[in-house]
């Protein structure tokens, strides 16, 4: 790399206040902060924050391809996501790099593999499907009688129950609720400014909760080893315990615990957040509820949805994609350069963070026509706006660290939507106009409330 490149320090944007950088804006505004920076500076800008350092922010499919695929070996997910280490630990797959990452990923992939999901009634996958369906059916059974509900809280509880039951095989409601509380405290610890491990700080309380989760998972593992019950071999924990790579390596107990915590963490708030926003958009759009209900009636009828229906619901798939596009639960993806990186005429030095943005890419008017509009038909042929350029839709990431649970999440979301469409009609406040152009988590997401009204089964 040569003199023709400009220093990344010359990118538009600002490093903010001395020492603090932009940390206060980032914590208080979250995606709105990056949204505003993008509006002001365009597709390449710089920022900095206390505790993180300097960052190059890159927007668009080319940047996504560079970071997720082409230069993946020069970028560290472990260093880029080190703020997550108090939750998931550094031997969980998201926080691994290079050969270590490749080995773990290869061992984990069969647990969530797409091919397996595509084949109905294959042992373990059918077991996931049935478990998810039973948790969802029980969780939403009384939504029609309860009047107005806090959508975010209900969906978080539901998706956590799904992963605790599916991944750990836990059957007891009290146990699931307890794990749910520990997780809320653990993730709350991320927002603490003081990283001391004492009960006086958010971080410390989060770490105490993590120790309880670790103890709980270890106990489940030991009970399984003692019981040696083959039925347990079919859930995610069972599969992790029995996975052997081609060299005969197995995960250690600590590795199993840490991967399981990552799955529980990565697998519930993401799904609940996306469902929040899909139900919110549908709640504001009777015509789309109607379209989905008609498609659903034609394919599924009044019976519970089955594994074989999942691929026969293109309108529902497009609604979920539109939710992913407009409200990606991970609105940014973070890496740290471990070697110099060249992009758009700049030299980004090793040691800088490089951030790419599902949210901002998904709102580029050169890719998506009328990008702030909820328009699921943009994904239907012949438009297929996401297919014109690779890495235009990256709500589930892409390349080497792409989401392992994407198919599981799609299955779960379709089961939730299908169950709700069959039983209820619903409205959500606030309206889409009040949220526009972009959600602001601390202000408006918490206030999403929904009213579900029971409907009669449609006569065919
Ligand atoms: C709507 C739901 C979900 C969304 C939007 C989502 C999104 C993502 C994204 C964007 C990444 C890439 C992160 C990066 O490159 O830094 C990722 C990775 C990952 N996701 Fe998901 N995810 C979802 C559900 C799940 C579920 C249900 C699981 C269950 C196990 C899961 C497990 C993982 C794991 C283990 C990784 C790390 C993969 C690796 O590093 O190789 N996710 N997810």
UniProtKB/TrEMBL annotation:
<keyword id="KW-0479">Metal-binding</keyword>
<dbReference type="GO" id="GO:0005506">
    <property type="term" value="F:iron ion binding"/>
</dbReference>
<comment type="similarity">
    <text>Belongs to the cytochrome P450 family.</text>
</comment>
<keyword id="KW-0408">Iron</keyword>
<feature type="binding site" description="axial binding residue">
    <location>
        <position position="403"/>
    </location>
    <ligand>
        <name>heme</name>
    </ligand>
</feature>
<protein>
    <submittedName>
        <fullName>Cytochrome P450</fullName>
    </submittedName>
</protein>
<dbReference type="GO" id="GO:0004497">
    <property type="term" value="F:monooxygenase activity"/>
</dbReference>
<keyword id="KW-0349">Heme</keyword>
<dbReference type="GO" id="GO:0016705">
    <property type="term" value="F:oxidoreductase activity, acting on paired donors, with incorporation or reduction of molecular oxygen"/>
</dbReference>
<dbReference type="GO" id="GO:0020037">
    <property type="term" value="F:heme binding"/>
</dbReference>
<dbReference type="InterPro" id="IPR001128">
    <property type="entry name" value="Cyt_P450"/>
</dbReference>
<keyword id="KW-0503">Monooxygenase</keyword>
<dbReference type="InterPro" id="IPR036396">
    <property type="entry name" value="Cyt_P450_sf"/>
</dbReference>
<keyword id="KW-0560">Oxidoreductase</keyword>
<dbReference type="GO" id="GO:0016125">
    <property type="term" value="P:sterol metabolic process"/>
</dbReference>
<dbReference type="InterPro" id="IPR002403">
    <property type="entry name" value="Cyt_P450_E_grp-IV"/>
</dbReference>
<dbReference type="Pfam" id="PF00067">
    <property type="entry name" value="p450"/>
</dbReference>
<dbReference type="InterPro" id="IPR017972">
    <property type="entry name" value="Cyt_P450_CS"/>
</dbReference>
